[in-house]
Amino acid sequence: MGNKSSLYLKEGASIVSKSGGAWINNGIVEGYFSSAGNQNWRSSRYAMKIGSTTFTSTSSLERASSSTYHTFIVGDMVSYAGAGKLNIGTKLYLSDGSSMTLNSSDALRIAGASSQGESDIYIAQQKFNIDGSTYTEYFSASNASLIFGADNDIGNIYLEDSSTLNITANGHKVNIAAFKPNSDGANFSINIYNLTDFTLKIGSLDNIATEVDEDGFLRTTDSFMVAVDEYFLDYAYLVAAEDGGYWVNVTSAVPEPAECALIFGALACAFAFVKRRAKNRLF
User: Fold this and answer.
1) 274 burial level (CB within 10 Å; 0-12, 13-18, 19+)
2) Average pLDDT of the residues in 12-22
3) Could you tell me if 27 and 47 are in contact, meaning their C-beta atoms sit under 8 angstroms apart?
4) DSSP-assigned letters across all residues of 208-270
5) pLDDT value at position 35?
């Protein structure tokens, strides 16, 4: 497909990459469309790169395992695919400027994982050093987005040094095992948008800087932020979940002292009113 083009898979269509890959969008596709109209695309070399592609509810992706060549999202990929229908046998990277929107649950199977909750995602930009005919792969920072249109579990999210991941939760239940830097001492930023309290959960606070604030609530510091309005990012509140892990919240979900006084005052007035009515009934 040509540069800056898009691919929309019809219901029931599939993409098959046997032992390598090619470009879907922003490059050249090597393959064919079958005479029966089932879009079966096959390629045999290099990394697989997915650009502006929409997977419908019954379409699928089958990416053969390869220890050498990875799979990269390089545009805006949108998925409505069913559980396990996006089977990617290699590491999956979100490249700089890319986004992945998951409008269905549990579609991904990455690098042999048995579920999406065990599938890891890498936030990094692929680059090469070229010395004559020798190509050496390396990675740099990526600014990428994960957008949720349905409840989903994700495994570990690995981030290259100085990478940024933008998460738009949209009120859906999202469980992320952990955020991990790709190397010791690496820094990363997590920005969370459209968050509803007690919907986004992380399994581990390792690699996330935290502090107990002056009100006694656990909060993130530095680069783990939540958008609380259109223009402002604030540090996230962390609330321990009963079944393990931590909820990432916009608020502490515990009333402030002034709010508590109002609540108790209202309860006292209500109790006095009920008691007065009961007394009046006696006489």
Assistant:
1) exposed
2) 47
3) no
4) --EEE-TTS-EEE-TTEEEE-SSS-EEEPEEEE-TTSSEEEESS-SS--HHHHHHHHHHHHHH
5) 34
Instruction: Lowest mean pLDDT of 18-32, 118-132, 208-222, 249-263, name the range.
Output: 18-32
Query: Which residue's entry shows tokens 């695309």?
Result: 41
Q: Provide the token pair at 114.
A: 């048995």
- The pair of three-digit structure tokens given for residue 104, joined into one six-digit string: 């269905």
Collect all residues with Cβ–Cβ distance below 8 Å to 132 and sequence separation of at least 6. none
**In terms of C-beta density within 10 A (0-12 exposed, 13-18 middle, 19 or more buried), how is residue 228 classed?**
middle
103 and 51 inside one domain:
yes
pLDDT at 98 over 90: yes
> Looking at the DSSP assignment, which residues form a beta bridge with residue 18?
none
Q: Is the pLDDT of residue 90 over 70?
A: yes
User: How many CB atoms are located within 10 Å of the residue 28 CB?
Assistant: 11
CA distances from 151 to 89, 145, 148, 201, 244 (A): 23, 16, 7, 12, 18
Residues in the chain: 283
* 272, 231: one domain: no
Among 143, 134, 79, which Cα is nearest to 108's?
Answer: 79
Residue 5 has pLDDT above 90, yes or no: no
Which distant-in-sequence residues (6+ apart) come within 8 Å of 71 by Cβ?
21, 47, 48, 49, 50, 63, 88, 90, 91, 92, 93
CA atoms within 13 A on the CB side of 166: 16
Number of domains in the chain: 2
Query: Which residues form the domain of 277?
Result: 254-283
Average pLDDT in the chain: 80
Tell which residue, 188, 159, 176, 189, has the closest CA to residue 248: 176
